[in-house]
Amino acid sequence: MNHSVTVKLQTGFFERTDFELQVTAEELTFKPVTKDDDEISIPTGSIKEITFYETKLKMEIQTKELTDTYFATESDWIDAMKAIKETLGIKIFCELN
């Protein structure tokens, strides 16, 4: 099962850019809606933990190699959480206020 959700990622200090988050059993891929930014791919086998922070509107993906943080709007993350949970079936941590 594949899912796709549009999210806004922080690409600069005060800049947020639309990316399409594609969730498959093999990887999470952030594809830029405009072609100006690089694609980001994270193999699902390397993911240790995913945490959503409600108060900061961010998602943190911890892999075996590093931790990346992505920012977006609240509604984007609700859809992203559902897509990740339905496709990968992994534990998702949520820090709610």
Terminal Cα separation, in Å? 31 Å
Under CATH, the homologous superfamily reads Pleckstrin-homology domain (PH domain)/Phosphotyrosine-binding domain (PTB)
Order of helices and strands: EEEEEEEHE
Q: Gyration radius, to the nearest Å?
A: 12 Å
CATH fold field value: PH-domain like
The major β-sheet equals: 4 strands, antiparallel
- The CATH architecture category equals Roll
| Integer tally of domains | 1
Molecular structure report:
- The protein is α+β, with helices and mostly antiparallel strands.
- It has 1 helix and 8 strands, in the order βββββββαβ.
- A hairpin with a 2-residue loop joins strand 1 (3-12) and strand 2 (15-23).
- The chain is globular.
Quick gist of this model?
By secondary structure, the chain is α+β, with helices and mostly antiparallel strands. The protein has one helix at about 75-90; strands at about 5-10, 15-25, 25-30, 40-45, 45-55, 60-65, 65-70, 90-95.
Question: Which descriptors apply to this entry?
Answer:
97 residues; 4-stranded antiparallel β-sheet; 15% helix; PH-domain like; alpha+beta
Secondary-structure map with pairings?
Layout: E1 3-12, E2 15-23, E3 27-32, E4 40-43, E5 47-53, E6 58-63, E7 67-71, H1 74-88, E8 92-95
Parallel strand pairs: 5-8
Antiparallel strand pairs: 1-2, 2-3, 3-4, 5-6, 6-7
